Amino acid sequence: MVLEMKVPSPGESITEVEIAEWLVEDGDYVEKDQAIAEVDSDKATLELPAEESGVITLKAEVGDAVAVGEVVCLIDTSAEKPEGSSGSSDKKEESKKEEPKKEAPKKEESKKETYASGTPSPAAKKILDEKGIEPSSVSGSGKDGRITKDDAVKAKPSMGTPTGGSRGESRSKLSMLRRKVAERLVAAKNETAMLTTFNEVDMSAIFELRKQYKEEFKEKHGVSLGFMSFFTKAVIRALQMYPAVNSMIDGKEMITYEFCDISIAVSGPKGLMVPVIRNAENLSFRGIESEVKRLAIRAREGEITVDEMTGGTFTITNGGVFGSMLSTPIINPPQSGILGMHNIVERAIVRDGAIAIAPVMYVALSYDHRIIDGKESVGFLVAVKEALESPEDLLMDGNVKKALEL
């Protein structure tokens, strides 16, 4: 029996995928549930498992865009597993060993040198003169090495390499995910009235809390007490104070959400992923840290699903892990706001009328000015700053141990 394997739907609204890589070769024997291909959608990279065991026949090439429901390969389930075979990888190794050595190609006979060698035709000379290119720098493809008009058209002027450095270049096709990200970023810039407001946060209070409780927190809950839980809590508080920031435009209407689904930007093997912490307003510090860890691991291992990245009412991105001091993050459409975290650096600040050294982070809020006014955007960011500088009072209700479930 020959089984037709069709492209399954990776998620709602996705109509096609792209074959990113075949993990097996045509004619291989594959086992049921073995990963046979990686496919890119416009939201994630997913593995395609074999539906049955048998010999596979590929029906699509790497880079092909394939519609959901279209046949990508055939599996002959009646074929018997080859004796001594433990998978396609063994077959590949054997084929490499058995592959005969190819004879080195014979050198082409040198072209006959004549008076025409390196001499441009009248039309070619005119083009080279206009480009400012010396004929001696052009290799002629005409009879006896004569420089043709086509050679002159293709010739490029030297950019100058006084150090003799390499001038090589390479091309590679953008994945469907990367192309979609590019489209969304351009759309966010072109279709929203995006502005960014900045502030600075004295992180001293959070540093003290983490120094005092991080070991006990990790020992009890199995996750670290990081900065993300404090920032998520501060953002949720600010969203509840300024609900317009937790809104988005739908045609001529504004949708305001009563829940906080917080998207967190994570760097994955295929680029930036933005998984979502659902109903973050109901989670404790432990719950947020556990969910951040779970989603980050899944994203970095390429296991994140489309459903886990769909939705979100507000995004937090942390460029500080890469050393960024300040940036203007781009809105994650159709959301209306994104908070950018940055690196923490000891800076001189004024505290109680005196100069002091403190760990300071610059924060940035990019927002859609079509539905969020300046007063709301600035008020939102100030609310985030206040909560981060007074976490015990504003995020923990004055009881640190209870908030951390210690």
UniProtKB/TrEMBL annotation:
NCBIfam families in the cross-refs: PRK05704.1, sucB
Protein's recorded name: Dihydrolipoyllysine-residue succinyltransferase component of 2-oxoglutarate dehydrogenase complex
Protein family membership: Belongs to the 2-oxoacid dehydrogenase family.
Source organism of this protein record: Flagellimonas profundi
Biased composition (Basic and acidic residues): 79-114, 143-154
Catalyzed reactions: N(6)-[(R)-dihydrolipoyl]-L-lysyl-[protein] + succinyl-CoA = N(6)-[(R)-S(8)-succinyldihydrolipoyl]-L-lysyl-[protein] + CoA
Described function: E2 component of the 2-oxoglutarate dehydrogenase (OGDH) complex which catalyzes the second step in the conversion of 2-oxoglutarate to succinyl-CoA and CO(2).
GO molecular function terms noted in the UniProt entry: dihydrolipoyllysine-residue succinyltransferase activity
Ranges where the record places region Disordered: 79-175
Cofactors required: (R)-lipoate
EC identifiers of the protein: 2.3.1.61
Superkingdom of origin organism: Bacteria
Boundaries of every Lipoyl-binding domain copy: 2-76
Transferase is among the record's keywords: yes
Keywords: Acyltransferase, Lipoyl, Transferase, Tricarboxylic acid cycle
